[in-house]
Structures are given as structure tokens and as C-alpha cells.
Specification:
- The structure holds 2 protein chains of 2 kinds.
- Chain A is mainly alpha-helical.
- In chain B, helix 2 packs parallel to helix 4.
- In chain B, the strands form 4 sheets. Chain B has a 6-stranded mixed sheet with strand order 7-8-9-3-10-11, sandwiched between helices. A 5-stranded antiparallel sheet of chain B has the order 2-1-4-5-6, covered by helices on one side.
- The chains are: A mainly alpha, B alpha+beta.
- At the A-B interface, helix 6 and helix 7 of A face strand 7 and helix 2 of B.
Chain lengths: 225, 362
């Protein structure tokens, strides 16, 4: 049912989504915590930047990234000066671009979850002798678990489904940057509707299962809470 | 724990919303100090500042020989290193842990000190049957009892209780008051108890800090502070005497108990007290009627012989506050100025205080 190139694209897509999700959880956690607790005047501007990918056409984001990361771009030159290979049209470049693209889908659920906990449980934990890191690990994280699950599922599913950003910064290199959505596009262009159907159905199932898992993994509601 | 004679010293000033706070008090190293005042006086904010949870508060806080905060020297000990046991107004149990998990939280971080009688405390507060329950399934009173044991198990050197009974119904409140009274008797660390319920304060506190509009208006021993004549009108309802006596008799026919205190004898309604039991009660200034002769023609059962000490303005121009001395016990009466003149009262004069009502606990 799947051709070799289908499987290659599937594997690449899952690898990309997993990498991006893990990195975003690690980096997005402190950012979400800061957004939930800071009184800084930078909070709103930063929150707006985090939300940008929600409204920006992915091609615009991809275009600017291409300009920025390309050999003539500011970041591209820095990377070249550091002796590293250029990012565009590589898997690493795709990871960087996807992280920016999926940022709000991870940060916002985390931020909402942290805000919902409020200051009280953290104050209580402090009076019981728990230091800041202890409070985060033993109180904030367990209480924010539904938010973490949502962030993980949304981040993963959103990365799996991206197209425009990949088109701009990734190109369509088999095994490197040709992800599922690209391959579907290729199949349709070539008139191979059957293969396009199979892959599309695959993505549809992944998305549905992700959302189902999200609602199942949420702790049940208790009438007395 | 420190053995020095110094307890908590705090001198702090800050703004919170519309309220400007400026407090300065020194609490003894033993016993329960009530932080009492009307709602909005800044009591809770003050307690949070002592705990180190109110970062806006500037000044100096020390406990025993340990400096907790000294802004002149840029010193600030964060809350988690102050070894305090804080009980919040609402129980604030951790909802992701069972009752046992909640109790364990502070106990483990305190290093499971051997001198704490964990099982004893659990039984004392009646939470043994709740240990494996989910927090969400507890009643308000049960939650607050768990919160108290949790605070005590963190091996605190100072307990801070913020109106722990105010959200409870009357039954749960009186149950917990009993627990707190027993705790008071064997408590080795000092406690600051915030309340706006004077009967609760009268039953538990040894010392009193009176707050009004962000300021400390008076502080000192419970009995003498509540019978001062210079308290602001907002505290008028709280003024009165707190006497400590013991039950010496019970008359089953009239359902009355007889209470002996240094200033005389009181007959009070029987409420399951036993002879020999120590009893604290509060006689509000508004519940005292003065007479120049004993007894006779009055339904008031209690007639206490005392001497007028001083008189001052009360919260209404028609009224005055009379400070009395009954065998060393201070009493307070709020009477009309007209009566003061009609009875020709003056400091030093003998009077009989007829007590209309006595509050025994809450």
C-alpha cells in the first residue's frame, strides 16, 4: 500500500514532529512560565510575537526565515562565520522553522495552565519549605499536566500538518525535507490520486487520534473539586 | 528553635491597592497572639508580609536571633527558608495529592523530624480516617483540619493562622476551636492568629495586636488591651473584659454553672462544662449595667462588686466607657453619659456591675 518514498516521508514527518515537540516543550516551558507570572511591560509584546504564527500565512514566515537564514541573511552569515553549514533545505532548518511555526500551539496551552493554577498553591508550598525549582516540579507541573498534554498533542499535530513553511525553507528533498504534506502535493500534481488518498487518510487519522488522545489523557472532572 | 526571649519583631511599610500599611509590633516568643481588627484593616496582608510572601513590604522583620528581612542591609530570607507554618483562610490543599500526600509534603521537606509526634497530631485533629481520601471529597472543616496538621508537620518555629475558621459553618467552627484550644495548651512555638471574630480571639489569644486601616492601634496582653479606653470607634464592638475562671458548681435545676474568678462569681448557662474545668469568657462592654447598690429588682443574675478606675468617650457622643476594677480583674462598661452623671460616678467610687450576657467561646 505504501511505496518506499511514502514510508520515507512518513518516517521523516514523525521524526520532525517529535523533535520539534520535545524541543518546544523544553524551551516553551520557561517562556510560558514567564508569560504567566511576569509583571514586566514586555509581557504583551512578547505574547503578541509568540501568537504571530497563528495569523501569519506560513509562506510569509517561511519567506522571512529563508531571507534570514540564507547565505546573505543576518543569521545565515553568523552561522557561516561559526563554521556551520547553512540551514535552508536541510532537516535542521526544517526543525528551526517548524519550531517557530508551532510555538503558539505549545506556549499558549502551557501559559493558560500555569495561569489557572494561580499563586496560592505556590505560596502554600513555599511556606511548607519548598524552594522555587521544587515548587515548579512538585506543584506547578503536576497541576498543569492537562495543559502539558494539550501542548504536546497540538505541537505534534500542527507540525505534522504544516506545508507552507516547509515549501519555502525545506524544499522537497527526499529523506531530508520531503515530508508527508509535500508528498501528497506531489502525488496530486502527478495525478496519482490513489496514493494521495492513502497519505491524506493517514494524516486525517493521525490528527483525529491525537485529539482523541488529548481528551482521554485529561484527568476526569470531579464534581466536588 | 531559638531560646532567646525575643519573638517576632516586625516594622514594615508598604502600599497594597488603596491601603497604606505601616505596622510595628513585637510579639512574645510564646503563646498565641491575635491580630484583630475590622475587615480591610490589612491583617491578612500583614501576615503574608511576615511570611515573606509580600515582596512590596519594606522594613525589618526578625524572629528570635534570626533576621528574616532587613532592607537597610538588602537581606531577605525567602518564605521557604523561614520555617513557618501557614494556614490560609481557605484550606488550599494540593488537589493533585491525597490527604496523606498533603501531610507528607512539608514533613518530608523538614527532614521528618523525630521530635514531631506525627501520629499524635493526626489523631488529635481527627484526620486519620481521611488519610487516603481525595482532597476534593473533604468538607470545609476537614480540609482546614488537614491544613493545620500539614502546617504543624512542617516543623515550624512560628505558626501563622489566617482566619482559619471564617469559612466554616457553626458546628465545624466550634469543633475546630476545641482542637485549637487543646493545641494552645501544649504548643511550644508562638502563633499569630488573624481574626475579626472577637469571641474566637477571646477564647484563644494570650496577646493582642489591634489593627485598623493599615496601622497597629494597640498591642499588649489580651485582658488589658481589650479594656483600654483609647481604642478607635471601629473596634467598639470588641471592647470588653476577658476573664479566666474555673467552674466550681453546677445547679441542675436551673441549668446553671457557677464560675469563680478573681473578681467574684458568675452564674452562666450550663453547656456541658464539668466542675473543676478552667473557663475563659468575655464580657462585652455593652453587656454591663452599672448600679450603685447591690442586687435588688433586676433580672440580671450576675452582680460584680468593683471600683471605677477611669472614664472616657465612647464611639457615640451620648455614651461613655467606664473602666472598672474587680479584685484585680479589669472590666469595661459602656453606659450613657446621662447615667454617669445621674449616678454621680467618679474614679474611685464603688459600683456593682450587672452582667447581662457572657460569651463563652464561639
Amino acid at each position: 500500500m505504501f511505496s518506499a518514498q511514502d514510508l520515507q516521508a512518513l518516517w521523516l514527518t514523525l521524526r520532525l514532529a517529535a523533535t520539534v515537540t520535545v524541543l518546544l516543550l523544553v524551551l516553551g516551558m520557561p517562556l510560558a512560565w514567564w508569560l504567566a507570572h511576569t509583571h514586566s511591560r514586555w509581557r504583551r509584546p512578547v505574547a503578541a510575537v509568540v501568537a504571530l504564527p497563528l495569523v501569519l500565512p506560513p509562506t510569509v514566515l517561511g519567506f522571512y526565515l529563508l531571507m534570514l537564514l540564507g547565505p546573505e541573511g543576518a543569521v545565515g552569515r553568523l552561522i557561516a562565520a561559526a563554521g556551520l553549514s547553512a540551514l535552508p533545505f536541510t532537516f535542521r532548518g526544517l526543525v528551526v522553522a517548524s519550531m517557530l511555526y508551532s510555538l503558539p500551539f505549545v506556549v499558549q496551552p502551557l501559559q493558560n495552565a500555569f495561569e489557572a493554577i494561580g499563586q496560592r498553591p505556590l505560596d502554600v508550598a513555599a511556606t511548607l519549605g519548598a524552594g522555587p525549582l521544587d515548587r515548579f516540579c512538585s506543584i506547578a507541573l503536576p497541576l498543569a499536566l492537562p495543559g502539558v498534554v494539550t501542548a504536546t498533542v497540538l505541537g505534534f499535530a500542527h507540525t505534522v500538518g504544516e506545508f507552507g513553511v516547509v515549501l519555502m525553507i525545506g524544499g522537497n528533498i527526499p529523506g531530508q525535507t520531503r515530508v508527508m504534506s509535500m508528498l501528497i502535493y506531489d502525488h496530486v500534481q502527478a495525478g496519482e490520486y490513489h496514493q494521495a488518498h492513502v497519505l491524506s487518510l493517514c494524516l486525517l487519522l493521525v490528527s483525529f487520534l491525537a485529539l482523541l488522545a488529548m481528551s482521554l489523557l485529561r484527568p476526569g472532572r470531579h464534581p466536588h473539586d | 528553635m531559638t531560646d532567646s526571649q525575643r519573638g517576632l519583631d516586625a516594622k514594615l511599610a508598604w502600599r497594597r491597592g488603596a491601603l497604606a500599611l505601616d505596622v510595628d509590633f513585637a510579639l512574645p516568643p510564646r503563646g498565641i497572639t491575635a491580630l484583630f481588627g475590622p475587615s480591610g484593616a490589612g491583617k491578612t496582608t500583614c501576615l503574608r508580609a511576615i511570611a515573606g510572601l509580600e515582596r512590596g513590604a519594606a522594613g525589618r522583620v526578625s524572629f528570635g536571633d534570626t533576621v528574616w528581612q532587613d532592607d537597610a542591609h538588602r537581606a531577605f530570607l525567602p518564605a521557604h527558608r523561614r520555617r513557618i507554618g501557614y494556614v490560609f483562610q481557605e484550606a488550599s490543599l494540593f488537589t493533585h495529592r491525597s490527604v496523606a500526600g498533603n501531610l507528607e509534603f512539608g514533613f518530608r521537606r523538614a527532614g521528618r523530624p523525630a521530635h514531631l509526634d506525627r501520629d499524635g497530631l493526626i489523631d488529635e485533629f481527627g484526620v486519620r480516617a481521611l488519610l487516603h481520601r481525595r482532597v476534593g471529597a473533604l468538607s470545609g472543616g476537614e480540609r482546614q483540619r488537614v491544613a493545620m496538621v500539614r502546617a504543624l508537620l512542617a516543623d515550624p518555629c512560628l505558626l501563622l493562622f489566617d482566619e482559619p475558621l471564617s469559612a466554616l459553618d457553626a458546628l465545624a467552627r466550634s469543633e475546630l476551636l476545641g482542637c485549637l484550644e487543646r493545641l494552645h495548651a501544649k504548643l511550644s512555638v508562638p502563633m499569630v492568629y488573624v481574626s475579626h471574630n472577637i469571641d474566637e480571639v477571646a477564647r484563644l489569644a494570650d496577646h493582642l495586636v489591634l489593627m485598623d486601616a493599615g496601622h497597629v492601634v494597640a498591642q499588649g496582653a489580651l485582658q488589658t488591651t481589650l479594656t483600654r479606653l483609647d481604642l478607635p470607634p471601629s473596634l467598639a464592638g470588641a471592647m470588653g473584659a476577658v476573664i479566666e475562671g474555673s467552674v466550681v458548681g453546677y445547679e441542675a435545676h436551673d441549668q446553671l454553672i457557677e464560675v469563680d474568678f478573681p473578681g467574684g462569681r458568675l452564674w452562666l448557662p450550663y453547656r456541658h462544662e464539668v466542675v473543676g474545668q478552667a473557663l475563659r469568657c468575655r464580657i462585652g462592654a455593652r453587656d454591663v449595667v452599672l448600679a450603685t447598690a447591690p442586687g435588688g429588682g433586676s433580672s440580671a443574675l450576675n452582680d460584680i462588686h468593683c471600683r471605677v478606675v477611669a472614664m472616657a468617650d465612647a464611639d457615640h457622643p451620648s455614651q461613655c466607657l467606664v473602666q472598672l476594677d474587680a479584685g484585680g480583674c479589669p472590666l469595661l462598661a459602656r453606659i450613657t453619659r446621662r447615667s454617669w452623671h445621674a449616678l454621680a460616678l467618679a474614679p474611685g467610687k464603688e459600683v456593682w456591675a450587672q452582667v447581662k450576657a457572657v460569651a463563652v467561646g464561639a
